[in-house]
Design a protein that fits this description.
The complex is a heterodimer.
Chain A (H helix, E strand, L loop, with lengths): L2 H4 L17 E10 L12 H17 L7 E4 L5 H9 L5 H5 L5 E4 L5 E5 L5 E8 L3 H18 L4 E2 L3 E2 L11 E8 L1 H5 L3 H10 L2 E4 L12 E6 L7 H30 L1 H17 L5 H16 L8 H10 L2 H8 L5 H16 L2
Antiparallel strand pairs in A: 1-5, 1-8, 2-3, 3-4, 4-5, 6-7, 8-10, 9-10
Helix pairs in contact in A: 3-12, 9-10, 9-13, 11-13
Chain B lengths: L14 E5 L5 E5 L1 H7 L10 H15 L14 H7 L7 H4 L1 H11 L14 H23 L3 H15 L2
Antiparallel strand pairs in B: 1-2
Helix pairs in contact in B: 2-3, 2-5, 6-7
Classes of the chains: A alpha+beta, B mainly alpha.
Chain lengths: ~350, ~160
């Protein structure tokens, strides 16, 4: 399997199914692990990095659970392909941008990816659509147990798993969900929710993580505290309490809009559809914002010209690296916005 | 041309929006007001990373003598200040006192792990502390030009690393 094979599919996390999938696009659980007796990447020399990379790829490809993942050597991968993996949430922006020996092992169904030599030696992550943190934790935990049979991870009785950044020590777990919150945005309640979640020591970020803006009414929320709570406690507080609450707010905002301003709401959705079907040039931000309105229309049962599967497909296909992969060449900004509009016209009016 | 924010009339408008609904109109807002409306997404709260950075700077100002590097990886407190990352697992022991308040601050006051423990924990910990001690001994031996001793310690390190 190669990166090119991925272009024909959408990952499991974008299937649009699972609990609370009307608001929770996807869930992710990630563990940070480092080898004992080795420097972290922050102080490793190029040859040490290569040594660590070789060792880890060898062990991962011989592990019974991770052997069917396909390995992408990011040092040998061009920029468009690296960006393509970022758009599919299989690697981080940071890992795409870095230099030196690094890579990722990807499960063919894109449910799991192990980043090698990101900020930590290993970042094991699992992704699924809807709110499914419990299942993801079980999967990741099993994989971590299995890898621990072959690899010895840096650990301290008091501080738990040791990571390059002190903000990740302890469990090394990061649980996050991508939320679609157009109702709260339209009713101008979004800042309230984002403030409340931050007060609970959660991080709120844009579509592609740290430092990115919220486009298309999509917000990534994740835990920040990794020490002093067990994995189960973190999951329970986050996935069992906080997120269902936010989902409830979003649903009630949508209901209020539908009850008080049904015509304006429909107009909003149909205008978005009109633009998407007729525009000749569209930026990523504008397209994602229009698609957000369609998504809301579909989820609220007010719009049926496009199904959720098609919507999720175009959501990926219109992103910069995906457009260039399909075109088979690099495209400048203007060419991309033309290709994006054309892709949307094709797919949404079919 | 510079606009002032239409909302507060105070700050410079840096966010320019064209609404198409209910009627077409252009608006010019400052970052603060745009974030309030949910038009843009602003990190109004500091991230943990930023809090850490400030905290590290503060700590370092108090501890000008803290330039002793980690014997395992060579990291100094100043390197940590620059990157926000430690250099190796042993830095947590070497700079334990320095890192403790910072860790508590990043983790809502917590200082003790209560989650998963790997099956190999005991062996791992022995290895970590053993390696740290040996690397110190190796450094000492080399400084004293005691190459026989250095070779012996190096062999012990190798043995422990592959154990």
């Amino acid at each position: 399997m190669t990166i090119d094979d991925l272009t024909h599919n959408i990952g499991e996390w974008l299937r649009g199914v699972g609990p609370m999938c009307d608001v929770v696009i996807s869930s992710r659980v990630r563990l940070a692990r480092n080898l004992v007796g080795q420097p972290f990447l922050s102080s490793a020399s190029a040859s040490e990095k290569t040594e660590i990379y070789r060792h880890l790829t060898h062990e991962i490809s011989s592990n019974e659970l991770s052997q069917h993942g396909f390995l992408v050597d990011l040092e040998d991968t061009d920029e468009i392909d690296r960006q393509f993996l970022v758009e599919r949430h299989l690697i981080s922006r940071q890992q795409a941008a870095e230099e030196g020996s690094r890579g990722v092992s990807i499960w063919p169904d894109e449910t799991t990816a192990i980043m090698i030599n990101e900020e930590d030696h290993l970042r094991v992550q699992a992704l699924r659509s809807g709110l499914q943190l419990e299942t993801l934790w079980q999967e990741v935990n099993k994989l971590d147990d299995s890898l621990s049979q072959q690899l010895e991870f840096a650990f301290d009785r008091q501080l738990g798993y040791l990571t390059a950044c002190p903000t990740n020590i302890g469990t090394g777990i990061r649980v996050s969900v991508m939320l679609h919150l157009p109702g709260l945005k339209l009713s101008r309640e979004i800042e309230k929710v984002s403030r409340a979640t931050r007060d609970m020591n959660l991080a709120v970020r844009g579509l592609y993580g740290e430092g990115t803006e919220a486009v298309g009414d999509l917000y990534q929320v994740s835990n920040q505290t990794t020490l002093g709570k067990s994995e189960e406690q973190i999951l329970e507080e986050f996935g069992g309490k906080v997120i269902p609450k936010v989902v409830e707010y979003e649903r009630s905002a949508r209901e209020t809009l539908a009850g008080k301003h049904p015509h304006q709401l429909d107009d909003h959705i149909w205008r978005a559809y009109g633009l998407l079907c007729h525009a000749r040039c569209l930026s990523t931000a504008e397209a994602l914002s229009l698609l957000s309105h369609l998504r809301m229309g579909i989820q609220m049962g007010r719009f049926d010209k496009v199904d959720i599967k098609t919507l999720n497909e175009v959501f990926l296909l219109i992103q910069p690296a995906h457009l260039q992969k399909v075109a088979g060449r690099s495209l400048n900004g203007v060419a991309r916005s033309i290709a994006r509009a054309s892709c949307l016209r094709d797919r949404l009016t079919a | 041309m510079h606009f002032l924010c239409q909302n507060c009339n105070e700050a410079k408008a840096t966010v320019h929006i064209t609404d198409t609904y209910p009627e077409k109109r252009s608006r010019h807002l400052c970052e603060e007001c745009a974030a309030k409306e949910g038009v843009i997404f602003k990190q109004s709260h500091e991230t943990t990373q930023e809090i850490l950075q400030q905290f590290i700077k503060h700590k370092i100002a108090q501890r000008p003598e803290s330039d002793e590097p980690c014997p395992q990886c060579g990291m100094t407190v100043r390197d940590f200040q620059a990157k926000g990352l430690v250099g190796c697992p042993d830095c947590y022991t070497v700079f334990g006192e320095f890192l403790a308040p910072l860790i508590e601050r990043a983790h809502e006051g917590a200082n003790r792990h209560v989650g998963k423990v790997p099956v190999t924990a005991d062996r791992t910990i022995r290895k970590q502390t053993g390696l740290l001690r040996l690397k110190r001994e190796l450094k000492d031996a080399i400084e004293k030009e005691n190459y026989e001793e250095a070779a012996r310690v190096r062999d012990q390190i190798k043995a422990l690393e592959t154990a």
